[in-house]
Amino acid sequence: MTSKKVLIANRGEIAIRISRAAAALGWETVAIFSEDDSDSKHRYYANQAFPIPGYGSSAYLNADRILRIASEQGCSLIHPGYGFLSENADFVRECDRAGVTFIGPTEEIVRNLGNKLGALRLAESLQISVLPGTRKPTELSQVEDFFDQHGSLMIKALAGGGGRGMCRIESPDRIREEFSRCSSEAKAAFGNGELYVEKLLLNARHIEIQILGDGTGNVLHFWERDCTLQRRNQKLIEVCPAPNLAPLIRDKIVDSALRLARNLKYRSLGTFEFLLDENSEGDFYFIEANPRLQVEHTVTEEALGVDLVELQLRIAEGGTLKEFGLNQETISKPKGFAIQLRLNAETIDEKGNVQPSAGRLSVFEPSSGPGIRVDTAAYTGYAMNPSFDPLLAKLIIRTQSSEFKNAVSLARRTLREFRIQGSKTNQSFLNHLLRLSEMEEYKVYTGLIDENFARLAFQVDEEKVGFGFESNHKNEGSAEPETHEIPLGTIPVLSPVSGRMTEIDVVAGDFVRKGQKVAVVSAMKMEHLLKANESGIVEAVLVSPGKNVSVDQAILVLRPSEEEGPSHEDILSHEIDFVRTDLQDVLNRLSLNEDSSRPQAVSKRHKRGQRTARENVADLCDPGTFVEYGALAIAAQRRRRSLEELIKLSPADGLVTGIGSVNGDLFDSSLTKCAVLAYDYTVFMGTQGAMNHKKTDRLLQVAKNLKLPLVFFTEGGGGRPGEVDVPAVAGLDLHTFRQYSELSGAAPRIAVASGRCFAGNAALFGSSDIRIATKDSNIGMGGPVMVKGGGLGNFSAEEIGSAEIQSKNGVIDLVVENEIEAVRAAKRSLAYFQGKVEAFSCKDQRLLRSIVPENRLRSYDVRALIEILSDEDSVLELRSGFSPGIVTAFIRIEGRPIGLVANHSMHLGGAIDAEGAEKAADFMKLCESFRLPILSLCDTPGFMVGPDAERLALVRKAGRLFQEGAGLKVPFFTIVLRKGYGLGAMAMAGGSFHSPVFTISWPSGEFGAMGIEGEIRTGYQKELAEVKDWNERQLLFERLVKEAYERGKAINMASYLEIDAVIDPADSRKWILRGLASEIS
């Protein structure tokens, strides 16, 4: 083999790797290095090394200079490594023109694959699945349009790899900023800032196939690598082979890669990459091909025992696979596993941002031993350069074990043996990652690291990395900034990051004001401004532009000046009222949501005697407290309407959501926070669109996390057709209704309906804890269109679920005149869950002594009794139109909120029927859920009986009343007003007269195991039958009833201790207050 000379157009560990492979073939090598990279070890592994002008990545992208050096030094080949010029088709062309062999694919292949889109188009032509995406260099507006159509997406650089120029977008608000960042990052890394986008695939594994071709159509594969473990799209750990990959799926992915490579007549090494959808039955998608040597080629080399770089060099020399004796059968399947860990020199701030770390390595001792490989260009004394990729070393382990957990264990141990001091690294981060339970079982996906970033980055080390044996070096793991003696009486201006000094705006002797910009540091493609922390004279400038600096390194020193004058911020303070263009754009857009910008819609609403959604929200919340969530949402109909039209037609997508304070005049601010949602009937008739479902879900999540009560104005027509931007068939997988129901018992949910409330809107109304409706409401699980569509007839909205009907059947708790009253009712209802009010009054309690008639057979109005017993204006009755035999209400006693359940003798004599049992049980459950004490006013002859009563499922509903009573944990009090008979009375006392905090009776109380008359007829049936004369039998019956009544009087009942006391009715409030105080204490 004739001697060859190759120029290596790269740096660091990959330049060393190529130098070694070339040397093994007897080739000479030429290295290059930038002005700020002269200390990199790669230059010493080559036969010759030459500087190239420039700093950082830009120097290694200087194609003309590199080709000139190759020509001057007689190089017949150029190896680009990875990154930099490795996927630049123009550079390949220039190499060809210069008569220098480019070690890699042909110009045509690089051009087709290097910009990613050519590869996607090829895959589509071969019927290989790809994700939806753009197929040309994409502008910002096109990215926004794609998001509108497909939702979450990935922005990707057309050229290059390594995760640069890539970003995951799940919110349209981030598109503009991230598009610009990705373009700049790609331009800096690869010399090409063009981007494209594709649909984001969640819960995916990243599988890539290593290919080698000789340009004749003959290609081989070296099996697969799993590169799923990525941080912000940059690979951290690679595994070969992919654990837990079904053989059939592996074969299909390999076949797809081979088909692509053969079609191209691929030459050299290449990698074809796929995403495997873990939520499917093996669906996978081709995403890109990398026509170059990959960073992770080393893990394949270790798993298979091959030298891929040497094979690449031999192919470049003009050889064929057949000449090398290589075919697929000669490439054995991997035995065991190999794992590669990328050790990076980097720091992580409290926000999770990653930056290259600077500093000089005081200790660098790589792990060693059987099954361990380290590729690196670092050494003890090496000064880290934050202008380049922070990759410090690639640590690769291999094991013959078929148990992947054994490979993970070896990787952890080997990582801990690696000693690095003097610069911060991700060594601990990788250690934490290897300790995840998902790692040993390899149940991973591309988002695993990003979703667990905080605990991986900041958890306490339980296993010390770097082995803590004694050393003469500091083991601080941090960069030590260059130090300068700071003169006495001066103040240093420090660099906030490690990076390169790009600007110095002052010289010694300049006067600067506090807050004035004095310098700029560039790090990770971002510019960081340094400002004077005091006014003064610049004593000295310690760093010159172009130099690397460390975190907290002094850039210049100031001598504070005694000169009086405003600070730089003070000088700019006159601009405090200035509104920037970006802010004005937001303000203009938000103003379009306001009622003042929609006079026609508001006028139409007012003509119907109704208010707008925003008027209701403003009335509900205390002034100035409401903050709106999701105000910029519009209907998901951008494919059928223009943006301008949608902004006009669907402000806030027909749903006002946010957080405010309610009843701040009565309670401390800590008790008044409330989540508020209001469907806007002026927007598509208050229907539920895709975006307002998303808004609902978001606010429900906030309400759950913050344990906020919730008021929901639910007027609207249910689901909205025509939402063409959302890919769905039926939309039955949304979470709104489940999320809303999951709030049950967490915090009160109050719903308000006015006008028409159908379908999904009605479902939310019906799921609420307290339901308020105006008298003109129509509420139903389906509106006129749905009824007609079901073949059930033609009905107007007014004929479906009127407030009168829904009040009588218990759907509505409170029927009010209009929305003004509805908001008042909502505020009043909410107040019972917010706590005690300080101001109260009550009527003369002696009025209670005569409220129950002396005639035991005469009915009376228990509501009048409740009004006297309670604080004035504190009674709020719920479901008054439903089951009139039971009264349920919120009341206050000396300002304390209490739930009240009472029998009403004017309906069925106070007997508890099926609906009454249901009503009482529901109310007890509500009070128990929100820790409201309950007062029961008992006056019942028992449960209703008879065939008609049983047709309404009385047994089941009575049983539920007992269950709810037995389950009460809140303070429960029972006062027997008159009748306390049988099971009905026991149910009114929570199941037993000894269950409540107290069970007391007024003097009018009477008790029995069942109704007295029924008891006598049953117990004395024989005696009564023996009296033949009807008049005498009646006299006997009346005597027995009288005797039984005497036995059942309250005084006698108390003497047997079956009740706790017989009291003066005027003392009822005192007993209730004592009961509350005893429970609290």
UniProtKB/TrEMBL annotation:
Residues 481-559 form the Lipoyl-binding domain. Residues 2-454 form the Biotin carboxylation domain. Residues 120-317 form the ATP-grasp domain. Its cofactor is biotin. Residues 843-1081 form the CoA carboxyltransferase C-terminal domain. It holds the Pfam family Carboxyl_trans. GO terms for molecular function: ATP binding; ligase activity; metal ion binding. CDD domains: biotinyl_domain (cd06850). Keywords: ATP-binding, Biotin, Ligase, Nucleotide-binding. The keyword Methyltransferase does not apply. SUPFAM superfamilies: ClpP/crotonase, Glutathione synthetase ATP-binding domain-like, PreATP-grasp domain, Rudiment single hybrid motif, Single hybrid motif. InterPro entries: ACC_Biotin_Carboxylase, AcCoA_carboxyl_beta, ATP-grasp, ATP_grasp_subdomain_1, BC-like_N, Biotin_BS, Biotin_carboxylation_dom, Biotin_COase_C. Residues 594-614 are annotated as: Disordered. PANTHER family: BLL7292 PROTEIN (PTHR48095:SF5), PYRUVATE CARBOXYLASE SUBUNIT A (PTHR48095). This is Carbamoyl-phosphate synthase large subunit.
